[in-house]
Amino acid sequence: MTSVTLDELRARDRRLDRRLVRQRASAADLAVMIRSGLIAAGYASLALPGTPFEHWDPGVWADCGLLREETTVRPVMWKPGWLDHYDTTALDDAPSRRARRRFDEDVRADLFYRQTMDHATARSRGQRDAVRAAALAGPGDTVICVLPTGSGKSDVVLTRALRNRPRQAFIVVPTVSLALDLERRVQGLLGDDCDRFAYFGAANPSDKERIRGGIAAGSQWLTIAAPEAACTVLAPPLMEAAKRGTLDLIVLDEAHIVTEWGDAFRPAFQAFAGLRQMLLDTAPDGQQAATVLLTGTLDTYSLSTLTRLFPGRHCMLLSGQTTRPEPAWWSAPCRDEDDKREKLIEALRHLPRPALVYTTLHMSTRSTNTSTARSWLADAGFAAMTEIAGNPKPSVRQAAVRGLRLGGTTDEDLDIVVATSAFGLGIDIDDIRSVVHLCVPESVDRLYQEVGRSGRDGCAAASLVLWAPVDMDVASDIARERLIGPDLAWKRWQSMRRGRWVGDELTVDLRAEHAGVTYPSSDANIYWNVQTLAAMDRARMIRRRWPIPQNVPVDAADDEVEAFFDTQRTAATVEVLHSDLDDAASFRSRLTAGRRSTRDAAEAALTAATVLIRGIDECTNQYLARRYRLEDDAGNQFPVSVACGGCPHCRRSGRLPTPAPAHSTLLAGELRAEATDDLQCLSTDGRMSVRLEAPNDRAVRTLVDRLLRRGVLTVVTADPEAVTWPTRTMGPWWVEDFHEWADQLETPWRVPTLLVVDTSVDDTVLARALSRLARQPLGIVLAPRTRRDPSDPRQLLHEAWAPSYEIEDLLRRI
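RE: above sequence
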């Protein structure tokens, strides 16, 4: 049997190494990390003499699945009878070994991406196409990018932001930690750690003032902030930037939050949609910012919400969804709270760290709440943990993230966070190995998002759901409690519509009261008035216009900014879309129709979560792939590729974990670009051709360089690797393989394109390529003079694709 030393374990595990430095480290915390390290070393044994735990009681080791044999300990496989085991798989085996589950495709990167981000390849076709879409998006356009975790979504928007400097980009993120991560990324790319891009409450006051002033003056080319800051203290300078026409890009990261949490938990995400529309309306024509929405998962209902709240001049949906290959899915029913407690403690004595433990409740005693879960773990001896309850302050979230990342002192290190779903928003910690649910999430979206916090480094992770019958009832009640009924909504609308009218726009008082309201200024009254407007908005009865709160101090902390946002939102402006909303019957009818779709979506999401937890006779990820298959308003469908890190059905069937297959990105909508007028005027109906008498690489390179500078974005050639392309910095452009490009007859790219034809391209492929080229705003064919038209061999290609120019003649003209 293999034997390792403690020094070898410490060298492999920074977390264990830091824990051994920590004063009064918990034996329970240390033992489970030692177990994981020994499993990773091939179930090796550890020699105890000379170690700090040489004289530990054998029971400490036994609790964590470690067998003491004289002077050594070794791990034994953990296969409790309350979990399904259809093969030799143990829940903690692959996560402890950090088995690789996700592999990058290493697609050839476009030159403009390589120049900007210093990467020779893109991680996938999805990332490459998303980078192109974000770079190509024009004034007022909207791009929705749905790409799996770990696919490089931040590069999608940073590429454009960096290339378009000094024009300004504004990125909204849900947490300070994500803002700081992006800031560090940009600083690393620029080789300068002095510039500040993240605006958050705890930042240096002078940095915050400089960012705010720089946005207004146009000198701050990149800003990263939470939506609360965007809609309060940063709104006035953003309006100045938009008015001047220097705001180039608006980004919303983790865009699924708009639907899942925007009505109540973080309403600033939906308020930001209103601010974004104001910024577009304020900008000069042709100088509006493009909008990019980024998310890892999206369902059809959420897609509909995003397209409604963030409309664009041209819109593109780019979907490269793949089910997560990292987590293995496990679930176990519990008789009662005592049974759940015993299973939780046993699991966390074996599961690798760091770990997240989720509950639904933070105060109610109907089932397990965060306080109860934390007390269970403390009684079991776990010390490196914290509790995040309810809607935590940003400073509390930041401290928890810092502790999990080992970003502070050793005494601040955390192995376990016990939290409600609020902690899942936007945390990006690469090496979360275990996620345990002590509840039934009220939607499959919440379940999938919280499980998805693990394995972001592409390595195996464990997902375990421990649930009792009461948890099913709690989930059902929560899924239904957010919907306001038509009768109560009508009463609230009657009171709110007495506000101030300007044309079709109405400014309502969110403190408006009806006969049943005792305290008009209470949080509850404002909450239900907001819910009424949200329900009307979803039913397309109104369109909300969020006011910008005034007098928010620049030096306000994040907690204070959130408080300012909440307290100053006592009014809302809405555009009334129907003239019959003063009629009770019409109002109830419209609201009921909209409420039905919302209720159906909530019930479907709850059902999906419960069937997965109870168990299905199908691969969990196959089921999720159907759940997240998108359909847009035009009826286009976007299937999801299936990967599986392990689930009950696959274990029962003897199937090994399967990584995600490579697949093409699915796109819908359209982004369009035009060539410069001097090039466009040389064509007829968007066509022109260029004749070559003999091969002339220098002339071709010169022509390509000049065409790219005049708006040509795509060069299609039979051998992209064999050509030396221009390397000078210019706008986004890319090279396509002739055969692949010809096979994609339907495409959302409507861009000026150069088709380079040589003798290696047969007539069948050329005919398909010309058919696609004809649908571009400008199609240029570069071909030998003697090449025949594949559709009519009696004429030459340049005769069919007129007007035609000798290459030297065209070079003189442009």
